[in-house]
């Protein structure tokens, strides 16, 4: 039997994630939304692309959580995106209400699923989902670091005019202005980028990465990025479905790792069939550790506002 992935929120990120999943033939997809007609229309439209793409995935759109029953993975993209002039944190109260509603429904329908949280502000939403779902931390994971690292990799590849395939990068911390790109752990064909890009230029790439979401919002004006975010989400989905044991930067509930306790923050994680299978602790310099702490403190502040 094919695996079943539910995507909550049939908007830009949700529908595009469904597209990537189907194009890679990873699983059957249930697209669910509160708006009537949109998930049904997008789901059927995508299903009708399958003969052309030669992919046997079944896709349906629905407003009924009964259709999502016993999903292997549930991706939550429900919520409002930001507009120019807003920070992700401005979405906190609205998206917290939506997250609470969604988590109670998906966990009732799929008590054994793995939850991947995408809605912003990401780390606080992951924390809210974790507290409400009452799943163990292996089964509630937030998507941000894969996206932030992909942006950093893009900028490095463009700067050095090398294949994106040569570039690896790590971005830790919360998915906000205080995120922590780590040049020391970013490489081109195994060569640390600190050997290849001079410090001032590198700092500019780091800052562009931190502002990567806002850069897209400024162009789009009506919403935020969705191609790279959905591709990043689907890399996590694939790692879990295929039990790849892939190391990816994800938001995970820390219990003492990196000196942080009881909080979702982005760190290197191993993803496999059980979800979050391991948190990798790397030794940070004093400066990197201070930046990570500052980022975690910003997440903690947001969580305190909504009491999670
Ligand atoms: N973690 C990350 O790195 C990223 C997070 N995001 C976040 O993802 C979220 C979605 O972004 P977009 O898809 O661009 O927005 P969108 O507005 O295109 O889609 C959101 C969808 O959620 C639906 N929705 C609202 N309340 C719902 C509920 N209670 N149940 C089910 N569906 C509901 C809406 O009807 C809409 O179709 C935003 O919060 C955005 O900030 C976006 C990009 C990257
Ligand atoms: O910028 C936003 O609001 C959406 C997002 O999280 C991103 O693209 O990094």
From TrEMBL:
Keyword NAD in record: yes
BP term (GO), one: tricarboxylic acid cycle
CDD domains assigned: LDH-like_MDH (cd01339)
Lactate/malate dehydrogenase C-terminal domain residues: 147-301
Residues the entry annotates as binding substrate: 82, 88, 120, 151
Active site: 175 (proton acceptor)
Keywords on record: NAD, Oxidoreductase, Tricarboxylic acid cycle
Catalytically driven reaction(s): (S)-malate + NAD(+) = oxaloacetate + NADH + H(+)
Annotated residues for binding of NAD(+): 9-14, 33, 95, 118-120
Principal EC category: oxidoreductase
Its EC number(s): 1.1.1.37
GO MF term list: L-lactate dehydrogenase (NAD+) activity; L-malate dehydrogenase (NAD+) activity
Domain Lactate/malate dehydrogenase N-terminal: 4-142
Top-level taxon: Bacteria
HAMAP family registered for this protein in UniProt: Malate_dehydrog_3
Family: Belongs to the LDH/MDH superfamily. MDH type 3 family.
The protein's role, per its UniProt record: Catalyzes the reversible oxidation of malate to oxaloacetate.
Protein name: Malate dehydrogenase
Organism: Alloacidobacterium dinghuense
């Amino acid at each position: 039997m094919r695996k079943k992935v539910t995507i909550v929120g049939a908007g830009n990120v949700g529908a595009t994630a469904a597209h990537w999943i189907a194009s890679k033939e990873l699983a059957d997809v249930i697209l669910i939304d509160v708006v009537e007609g949109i998930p049904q229309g997008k789901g059927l439209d995508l299903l009708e692309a399958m003969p052309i793409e030669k992919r046997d995935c079944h896709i349906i759109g629905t407003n009924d959580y009964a259709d999502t029953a016993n999903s292997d993975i549930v991706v939550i993209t429900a919520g409002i995106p930001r507009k120019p002039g807003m920070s992700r944190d401005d979405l906190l109260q609205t998206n917290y209400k939506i997250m609470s509603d969604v988590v109670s429904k998906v966990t009732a329908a799929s008590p054994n699923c793995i939850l991947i949280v995408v809605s912003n502000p990401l780390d606080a939403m992951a924390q809210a989902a974790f507290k409400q779902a009452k799943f163990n931390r292996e089964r509630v994971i937030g998507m941000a670091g894969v996206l932030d690292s992909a942006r950093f990799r893009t900028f490095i590849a463009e700067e050095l005019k090398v294949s994106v395939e040569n570039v690896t990068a790590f971005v830790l911390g919360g998915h906000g202005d205080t995120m922590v790109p780590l040049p020391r752990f970013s490489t081109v064909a195994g060569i640390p980028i600190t050997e290849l890009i001079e410090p001032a230029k590198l700092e500019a790439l780091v800052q562009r990465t931190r502002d990567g979401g806002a850069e897209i919002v400024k162009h789009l004006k009506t919403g935020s990025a969705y191609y790279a975010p959905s591709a990043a989400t689907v890399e996590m989905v694939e790692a879990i479905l295929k039990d790849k044991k892939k190391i990816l930067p994800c938001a995970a509930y820390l219990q003492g790792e990196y000196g942080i306790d009881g909080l979702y923050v982005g760190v290197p994680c191993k993803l496999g069939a059980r979800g979050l299978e391991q948190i990798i602790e790397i030794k940070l310099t004093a400066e990197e550790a201070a930046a990570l702490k500052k980022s975690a403190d910003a997440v903690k502040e947001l969580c305190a506002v909504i009491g999670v």
